[in-house]
Amino acid sequence: MNGTLNSDTLTARDRAGWERSAAALKIEGRAFINGRHVGALSGRSFDDVSPINGKVIGQIARCETADIDTAVAAARATFESGTWRRMEPRQRKRVLLRFAELIRADVERLALLETLDVGKPVLNSIQVDVASCADCIAYYAEFADKLSDEIAPTGPHDLALVRREPLGVIGAIVPWNYPLIISAWKIGPALLAGNSVVLKPAEQSPLGGIRLAELALEAGLPPGVLNVVPGFGEEAGKALALHSDVDMISFTGSTEVGKLMMRYAGESNLKRVALELGGKSPHVVMADADLAEAASAIAWGIYYNAGETCHAGSRLIVHEQVREQLIDMIERVAKTITLGHPFDPVTQMGALIDSGHLKRVLGYIDSGVAEGARVAFGGKQAMQDTGGYYVEATVLDAVRPQMRVSREEIFGPVLTVSGFRDAADALRVANDTVYGLAAAVWTRDMNVAHRVSGALRAGTVWVNSFDRSSLATPFGGFKQSGFGRDRSAHAIDKYVDLKTIWTAFR
Ligand code: NAD
């Protein structure tokens, strides 16, 4: 595996080339605790199945309570020793920047692991997932020697320092849709702040997280500061969230499991909880919108990553005057998005994560039709001969707001469409959801844009655009999409406590 290849060489590689690299890859499925690989204490493991073809690609350590205890003890010991949190800020920055460089240099292996594990197109893994993961670590590294604490404005005889202190041991529990990126969103600010971390990747996608821990150690992060413990949610995840020596759980995943996190915190040590949860993001399209722009952004906003994106624009709420025209235009864009084998460089939409999820997505399409929706295009499983889990880009039209497909997160390449005649109605339907992760409004009238974007209840609202983002903007939800923000300087606040040190002078 040549980690020095640049991404131009990689993007030119054909499917056979990627298949050869995948065949030569050694899959490391053991946990990474205190700077070394270890199997589960029970000796048990489970199959890692690739959604590309349904084949087993490796064995993963099935970690449980005892393994979590070991990882948390290692994280606690390094935290108390101060080897990381008391390291000179400039030196901490160097270590984190080196970590980011090693991620970039390892793009070939990391992209392969990500694509094998989750079935996304390998070019996306290279250009988006690995690149954004490295950028995120580098972004937070830069704060290490720039973030100052405060001196409060007190009287002349007092000095009140307001200091940020790391919380201690952070449990990071992440989902399978963007394993590298979401791990970095948590590891970056948590490490920058001086914490130690125990990362629990999703059982479907453990490989990237394990590799990140190896690279962090190579970059100079002291052993025990970043530990990775693979396993099932009900076992490893639950043990981590219930652990009384974990100071905070930073969770990304479903709203259902997010609610459990709060329960586990209450049942254990009242640890802090930050939640990034599900979404059902609406596009509100007014009759005067630039439909060509909107059609492209709407199609990519639901079909990118096969719709397995928390903020995917999954509900189209469109003025009746332009509804049919817009659906036609979305279909034209969708036809240009190539569904295919994830190692094929022309592929833009790959597999769904596993067979259970495939059934779930197809079941939602059936339920929509049973409740009276119409399949405008797509709607079927594809590429069955591969043994993998592929679904066509789909639009369900004539969806009423009370239907299940309009209310529940499908997490697949399925866009629901409902029409409106009155803008106030559109806004009411857009906000009539338990979720509040993201939303978009499309109109040429900036007065309408201003009013509607202000009234949409979501953590991010795009105006005449969709899915544009930067590490400098906070990301997270309103309502049952969670609380706490990933990305930007605001994310750092989650991983620190404020301490006031007050000194009185005579
Ligand atoms: P999930 O909630 O099933 O699992 C997420 C993580 O929690 C996994 O690591 C899993 O092993 C663990 N887990 C499951 N049950 C657990 C339990 N009882 N105790 C402790 N841990 C447990 O979610 P998923 O299916 O992996 O991911 C898809 C969901 O994630 C979608 O709802 C999506 O919207 C959401 N998501 C949100 C964001 C965001 O930033 N808001 C980003 C990506 C994904």
Defining key terms:
alpha/beta, six-stranded mixed β-sheet, binds nicotinamide-adenine-dinucleotide, 21% strand, globular, seven-stranded mixed β-sheet, 506 residues, 24 strands, Aldehyde Dehydrogenase, Chain A, domain 1, Aldehyde Dehydrogenase, Chain A, domain 2, 40% helix
How would you characterize the overall build of this protein?
With 506 residues, the chain is of the alpha/beta class. Helix 3 packs parallel to helix 9 and helix 11 packs across helix 12. It has 17 helices and 24 strands. It folds into 2 domains: 265 residues, Aldehyde Dehydrogenase, Chain A, domain 1; 189 residues, 3-Layer(aba) Sandwich (Aldehyde Dehydrogenase, Chain A, domain 2). The strands form 7 sheets. A 7-stranded mixed sheet has the order 14-17-18-13-12-20-21, sandwiched between helices. Strands 9-8-7-10-11-23 form a 6-stranded mixed sheet, with helices on both faces. The model has no long low-confidence stretch (mean pLDDT 97). It is 40% helix and 21% strand. Bound molecules: nicotinamide-adenine-dinucleotide. The site of nicotinamide-adenine-dinucleotide has 30 residues, from helix 9 and helix 10.
